[in-house]
Each structure stands twice: as structure tokens, then as C-alpha cells.
Task: structure prediction
Amino acid sequence: MKIIGRKREKDDLHRCLDSKKPEFVVVYGRRRVGKTYLVREFFNRQFSFYATGLTDEKTKGQLRAFHESLITYGSNDKAMPKDWFEAFSRLRELLESDVIYREPLNNKRVVFLDELPWMDTARSDFKSALDYFWNSWGSAQEDLVLIVCGSATSWIINNLLTNRKGFHNRVTKRIRLAPFTLKECEELFDFNDIVMTKGQMIESYMVFGGIPYYLHLFDQRLSLAQNINELCFKEYGDLYNEYDNLFRSLFHNPEKYVAILETLATKKSGMTRTDLSKVKAIGGGSVLTKDLKELEECGFIRKFIDYSKEENDALYQLIDPFTLFSIEFIQSRKCSSWNEYLNTPGYNAWRGNAFEIVCLNHVDQMKVFLGINGMETQEYSWRSVKSEKGAQIDLIIDRKDGVINLCEMKYTNEEYAPDQEEYEKIQNRMFVFQKETKTGKAIHLTLVSANGCKQNKYSGIFLNRISGDDLFI
Result:
């Protein structure tokens, strides 16, 4: 099968194969983002050893599955291992045998342990056994590449990436798999013979984000609206219960994570950690810090700084399209079909917010269009606390060359045509920003509009105009 996109990730895996030292690779990311697919297809489904954890199975079931994999790959010991220490001891024996498959170009032994968090059942010795396997043997094998992955991102982060005990500094490469960009979504649609305009692809991103599994579910015979209806609003739809399943797969106790996301969904411009901690279902302390970090690692939220404030006043904002869509439309079950929502006030408000999220997920593409992709920049938001009229800018690109791009993001069915009222609002925001921040940099008002900008006497206020098509870079 073809691997769409993932250039950086494939390069990372190539470099691990070329390495002259043992490699412990962690591939992580949210459910359905394509972790298993990437590793399987990159290695053409040929491994020295492959095993996967089983969902909702106890230790005995996990060991049975691991044992079956040992047999499949050449182990002669037919007895079930009594614990994980014995299971990994047999894996070592297998990897030391002459019958084991080696990667042909580099002669490496490649071990892939999929859905690793599921193997770590309650009161099992899994983590200790894995730790011992790697520290006592694997870390001395120059021709060994151990790849582990799992959707339970909190387990991956807390036990492998930030653990200060056995796995501290043992992981040699971490590969965080992000959702597809619009360009990669376009490639996937082309691969699956799904015909859509770029405008429709942007709207599909506003609903499903860049999650490959979701996009693979599209029926090429149906329109985008029909696909949304069939997948999300029909009880038999593949994504009808995805919102609940998503967080149960990622987090052991998902309730607080969901509370954070559903609270942020009510505040388009984001909330501070202090404000979030005041919500009873969320709470505060070190637990909230951990939860926010994990949600950020999964790509559900972003942490960003107000241009004129300190990092302690950082804001957190929901930036996952499918989560926002699910909260707004699926979870409420107010309507039985997508068509009932179309062109309602709630639908129009969602479109504006969802398009801004698309833009926030494509800042790199915006920088390419502006010709500053090689330049060091920082991204901020800004909210006025002094102006009577108030002013807010959701995306500021602060550049090293003495320029600041103040970005206005607009979603309209046709070309965006600013009128006098909108012109005056934008002018006021720019004036208040300059006055309050006292910036000495040049201000470039930048329009990002889904369907371009109509030339009129007010459109000249924008020095840069980025259309939806320009995000497909």
C-alpha cells in the first residue's frame, strides 16, 4: 500500500535503520491517525517479531497473544509463559536464533510491539519486564530496532517519554504522528478516487480534521454532506460513537479530559489555566497541568501566549476539528441528520470557528505563501483589556524581520467582500493593538479567506491575501 505524506517520519525510520547503535523508537499519536499503518507499510509487514496488545484483556490473555506471536515467528517453546519476564526471555532467545528474519538492506532485527499500553494490565509485571529486556540486553544490540506504539497517549507519555526510572533516556527516537495537512488529505482523496473541490476538502477538514482513518471511510458515490450524515448521524455510522470511543482509548480516566475540551469548546478564544481550574469537573493542581500537557501532545488543544502578557497567562484553545464538531452537533443529538443543521445560526457560527482552527493547523503553509517559511517566527493571540470597544486577534505572526502579520480569518460561501462596517472594525483592532502593545514593528494586515477576496474599495486594507487554495502547499 502507498504511504501518503509522512516524509519526516519515514526519514526518521530510515535513519534508525542506518544507525550503528540500538534504537528504541516510540511512535505515538491519537487514535486513528495511522501509527500502525505507517510502521507496517514502511517495513512491508516484515518484522523479526511482531505482537500487539489486546483491548480489554487481562494479563493471561495478553500473554497468550504474545505467546502465539512467539510461535509464529519461530519459537519452539510451546508452553505458555507464566509472566512477562519469561515472555521477554523467550523473545530474546528467538531474536538470538539463526532463523530470525533480518531487514535485507541493513541486516537489522526489527521488533514491533503494537498497542503496547494494552499489554500493561493491572498488577502485571509488564513494565518491569520490558525495562529489564531493554536495559539488560536490547540496549547492547547494535543491530536491534525496537519500535513500540499505542493510542493510549497518556500511558506512552507517562511511562516511556517522561518516566524518570527505567526508561529515562532509553528512548532514542520519538515520532509523534500528527493528522494530515490539507495537501495530504487531497492526496488521500485522489488515491481513493473521491472527487471534491478544494473548498469541499476544506469543509471536510472542518468536520473530520486530517485523520486518515476517517477520510478512508468516505463513500465516493456520495456528496460531502451525505458522507457526513451517513458516518456521523446514522446509528449504524462508523463514527456515530467515535467521540466517546476516542477518549476512552487515549486516556485511562477520560472524564476530566472531556470536561476540559467541552469547556474550551464554549470559549472560542481560549481560556487560561486559572479559569479552567475553577470548573468543578476539571479541578486544578498538578493533575490539571498533566492533563493539559497530554491533550496538547495529542493535538486536541494548543497552548499559546497573549502577545502582551507573560507565559503564566498562557491560553489554551481547542484546535481539533472533529472534537469541536462532535461537541457542537453529534453529542447533543438535537437533530437526526446533518441537513437539519445546514444554514442554521449554530451551523454558521461553527463554520467560522472551525475555519479558524483549519488556519491554526496550517500556519506553516501560510508562512510558505508569505515567503517567510525559513524565517524564525513566533505565533501569538491578543486580546485588548483596555479598549472600550474591545479588540481581539486570534493569530499574530511575529517575524524576525521587523514585521508582524495580524491575521483575519474569514469563512464565506463566496469571495469575502469587506464592507465599511467590517473595514472600520479591522482598522480599530489594528489601532488598539498598536496603541496597547507599543510595538515598533510594521503591521501587515493579512486576510485568510476560504474562497478568496473580492476587490472593492475596502479590500486594500489587507496587504496579504491568502485563499483556501493557498493552504494546500
User: Anything to note?
Assistant: The mean pLDDT is 93. The first strand starts at residue 23 and ends at 28. Residues 2 and 191 are 9 Å apart (CA to CA). The first helix runs from residue 7 to 18.
